[in-house]
Amino acid sequence: MKANYDLICEQWKAVRNEMPGKDSELFDFFLNGLPRPSKVLDLGCGSGLPIAKRLTESGFSVVGIDRSEKLLEQARENVPQGEFLTAEIESYDIDTEYSGVVLWDCLFHLPREQHRLILEKVYQTLPKGGLLMLSSGGSDIDQPPFTDFMFGVEFFYDSYTPDILIALCDKIGFTVEKFIVVNKPDGANDKGRIGMILSKGGI
Ligand SMILES: C[S@@+](CC[C@H](N)C(=O)[O-])C[C@H]1O[C@@H](n2cnc3c(N)ncnc32)[C@H](O)[C@@H]1O
Question: Under DSSP, is residue 193 helix (H, G, I), strand (E, B) or coil?
Fold first, then answer.
């Protein structure tokens, strides 16, 4: 199931252009909390739309990483000022300090056993006051990992419940600055989504 976004890159391009209202409010909070100019790392950046584009338009230098070569090709076209690299989030060695990190609609594609290590890695790269914008599944009931189909292609999903994720982030050292329920589970395949802005040591 490696780089399955390559298989739906054209459909993704057609649907992923703007951030829905609630996500956008959270993104504004993130942007307003970062020093400018500064560097932001976008993990699982996809096509660069809308996140990396808005970051560069707001005066940030952006490094985006993703496993999908095809989405990265789109990102280089959509955001020529950005730097985009092919890598797996779980093994990517973050060797620079970033004032902010985006991990949006991506962590849930990895097995939950890897979430802690990734969040710890992000924490290490942030300076004091640095921010992480994170989304995850929204179910309060612990769900086992599952797969679902998007544009006919199977995708893997796994998330801790929001309470467990918050406790994990707290243990790592993050402070929750903002928490939103983006959408609630629908009782079927949609397990809902939450979004958070986390800081290293408060803002
Ligand atoms: C739902 S898309 C979100 C893209 C972007 N963050 C956004 O919000 O528009 C998930 C992205 O995560 C990438 N991805 C999933 N698992 C990954 C992994 N282990 N390493 C790198 N990228 C990954 C996919 O290729 C895809 O581009």
Answer: strand
